[in-house]
Each structure stands twice: as C-alpha cells, then as structure tokens.
Amino acid sequence: MASQSNGQKRSITIQNQGAGHSSTLTLTGDILRVRREEWKDIQVPVRNVVWSEYVDGKLEVSVLAKRGKNASFSLVRLTTAVDEAQREAVTEFVDALTKLSYRGPQKPRRLKVLINPHSGPGKAPLLFKRKVEPLFRAARCELDITYTTRRNHAADLMQDIPLGTYDAVVVISGDGLIHEVLNGFAQHKNPLAAFRIPVAPIPAGSGNALALNLLGLEEGVDVSTAALNAVKGRAIPFDLFSFVQKDTRVFSFFSQCVGLMAELDLWTEHLRFLGSGRFVVGYLTGIIKRKACPVKIHIKVGQSDKDAIYKTFREERAKALEASHREIDDSSEEDPIPSESTIPPLRYVSVKPEEEEGWISFEKATSFFYAGNGPYVSVDLMQFPAALPGDGYIDVVIHEQVSRGKMLSAMDEASAGAGFWLPEQHYFKAEAYRIEPLSTNSCLSVDGEGFDFEPFHVEVHKGLARVLSPYGYYNADFFPKSSPS
Ligand SMILES: Nc1ncnc2c1ncn2[C@@H]1O[C@H](COP(=O)(O)OP(=O)(O)OP(=O)(O)O)[C@@H](O)[C@H]1O
C-alpha cells in the first residue's frame, strides 16, 4: 500500500492480497483516476462519482464513466477488500472524495420514481432497469416506484403525495408527465409544500426539454447522467406559469406557443420516428406555407432591450456558476415552506392591458408567438437563449412575418441561439401576457399539448417549484452579438 497527499493530489494504492491485483485511486483537483490491473484506466470528474464508502474493511467507489470513445455513460463499480493497516489512509481518501464529489454530506435520497411505459419509443421501463435502477441502488437510494398505467395517474398520485417522505420525484418520461406532476402538486391540500418537492427529469419521451436545459446538449440526452442528477443534484427555484383560458387554470412549466411553431408539431405528428428532426421538416413546411398568425398580443414587460437582457443573463449565469462550486452544508439546504397553503392568486388576470402601465401591445404581422422557460426547446433549437430557471420572467419571442429567404436564414445556428439577435425576432422578459386570436386559423400548444385556439392569459409565479440541477443553472450558453456565426 502507498498513500500520498500533496496539495491538490491524493493517491492511494490498495493491494488486494486474495485476488492478487492492486487498485490505485488518484484524486487530482476535480479529477478521479482509477487504475485496476485488469481494467482500462478510468478518469472522471468528481461530479461523476455516484457513491464512495469504506465500511467493514471494504472500499466501494461507483462512478459514471464512458468506457470507449463513442460509448454512453455507464456505471462502474470498484469494490475491494482493504487491509486493516490501510484503514486510516483509505478513510481519509474516501472522506476527501465524498466531500468533493457531493460538495457536502453524502446522503442517500428517498425517491418517488414515476415511469411511463408509453412515453416516446416505449423504452422507459427498460432504461430504468438497465441504467437508472442500478445507479440508484449504488447510491443507496430508497425507491418507491410506480409505472403509470393511464393518463393522469401521476397527477392523481401527486395530489396526495405525503409531505416530508421524498427528497425528489423522478420522472422517467417526457415533458408531458412533468406537466402532469406539477399540476398534481397544484391539487394537493398543501400545494406550496408539494411544489417544494424537487422534480428530476430523466429523458425517455419524445420531448425532453427540461432534462436538456438542466443537463446540457450532451448530458441532457443521457439517461445515466440524468439519474445521477436525481441522486445528487441540488434543488433550485423554478418559475411556473398560470395559463388561464375561460374558467380553466393550468400550471405550465415550460412553454406556450401560437402560430407556426405550434402548427408544425401537428403537421409532423406522423413523422415521430424522425425524433426532433421532425421539427426541422415542420419548419421547412412552414416556410413553404408562410402562413400569418393573426393575434392581438399584450405583454407586461420586464425587459425588452436585447443588449440588457444578454448582460443580465451573463451576470446571472456567472453568479450561478460560482455558487455551483461552493460547498453546501446542511443549513444552506433548508428551504422553508411559505405559511400560506393555497396556490398563489392571479395578479393580472382582471387588468385591462390597454389601460395599465407597463403593458405593451404588439401590432406587427406575426408568424409565431412562443413563450418559454428554458433555452432549448429541442436539440436543434435554442429558442429562448436568455431564459433563467427562477428569474421571475417568462421569455417571449415574437417572430414577425418575413420573407421565405429570411425564414430560411433564421435556421442558421438555431441550436446555439443565434436567432436571438435577428431584428425580426422580438424578445421580451415578461411577467404576464394576454393573447386574443383574431381568426380561428391557427393553433395553440401548452407544454407541447394542444389547447383550443381561444383567448388566454399567462402570468409568472417566481420560483414556485423546485427542480434538481447538477450545476445550479441551465447548462446552455449562447452567442454574443459580435459573433453570430
Ligand atoms: N400507461 C399510460 N398509457 C397511456 N398514457 C400514459 C400512460 N402513462 C402516462 N401517460 C400519459 O402519457 C403522456 C406522456 O407524455 P410525455 O411527454 O411524458 O411523453 P412523450 O412520449 O414525450 O409524449 P408525447 O409524445 O405525447 O409528447 C402524459 O400526458 C401522460 O398522461
């Protein structure tokens, strides 16, 4: 055995007498390296450490690693008996590793797991068994598993979810089931407390925008990294939106959309096998049709100057990034529940926008109106690059009706948010908005689900819900103005 620690580097070599092979673990800054005689070397950032412990003379370290150039992440578990003489050194090493990898106490979580066998291509149960459950078990999580059997099953369960019993609700499906979970919380007898239960998305649906935004383009499509987020991600405040139409009030967590971007979803329903590629086909169809979206739009504007929005975004992102490196102690984890026990009242639903200060009307011919709470709406489109999870605003994009050529060029670098800077794309940070259709000739979708194309009102509830995030912010950054290509 050899154990060394010098400054940023700690290394420990364990000679396993019985099996006759040795394992060396080296921690250099934020990187853990595992060498074991019969294995290929493994090198991972400490945030990929799932669990590490030394109990009863046995060391166990589980990590998520890519074992091959194009491989996806998989769980790698090192278990080895440790000689009594090494006890102190191994304990020290594991303590250092745990502290770094969890940035605080390593605690097994109690997870309510919802699996939708009918989401996306129907692989959620298989992904759970193969990738998610082994990782949860390695992290000692306590699991309460439900396979949803029908529409609204998850909402009904969330309506009665016992408080103080779960550290998170894990949703193995797409955005539709997240929408259901949050609307279930809203029906709880103590909705504000229910909304404080963090939601952790695991992408298994056809639209997985929340996972994509929290984890980023690469990890947001990876089931294992999303499962790791459920195990050790931090709860962050997350804005929700009341969507009010006639007498119905629904909580939307992600988007509302009118015109082209809502219609293309319908036009390409039969092309689901193309994955998110179907939206590209839909947009191209939209260019050919070049249909107008006749609506009256009123917005309660927080910010509308693009340079100022970009500046605020950069500042907020830098703050969140800095906070994500800080160690977290138990007290900073406390999230007091407000004393009221009803859903927040609507503040703007009865105002007359034309007469109110702070509201503007948008009059130009429009091809679509899109409001959302996360940069990526799909891997190909960063529609709301300046979106922040809990800033108290919904990001609004209104796309003027322009020539087919301009519509086509709006596709350039769309996945990196370059459209933000186009003069025909109007971008607002809004506290509320109101839409009145001027014809019946379009459609409306809320969190990807179709709604009647009739007048509706939306307003923001700042930080009402919680989501788990590995970074504390959306893992997406976009083009500054000076380099849009
Ligand atoms: N067992 C089930 N059978 C049918 N529908 C279900 C079942 N369990 C859940 N659902 C419904 O399936 C929908 C899943 O939507 P979600 O977005 O999570 O997955 P998806 O495959 O991406 O969906 P979509 O392709 O319709 O957008 C939810 O509205 C939910 O009510």
TrEMBL record:
PROSITE patterns (UniProt xref): DAGK (PS50146)
Q: Which GO terms describe its molecular function?
A: ATP binding; lipid kinase activity
Gene Ontology biological process: sphingosine biosynthetic process
Q: Which InterPro entries match?
A: ATP-NAD_kinase_N, Diacylglycerol_kinase_cat_dom, Lipid_Phosphate_FormReg, NAD/diacylglycerol_kinase_sf, YegS/DAGK_C
Instruction: Pinpoint the DAGKc domain residues.
Output: 106-247
Cite the entry's keywords alphabetically.
Answer: ATP-binding, Kinase, Nucleotide-binding, Transferase
Designated name of the protein: ATP-NAD kinase-like domain-containing protein
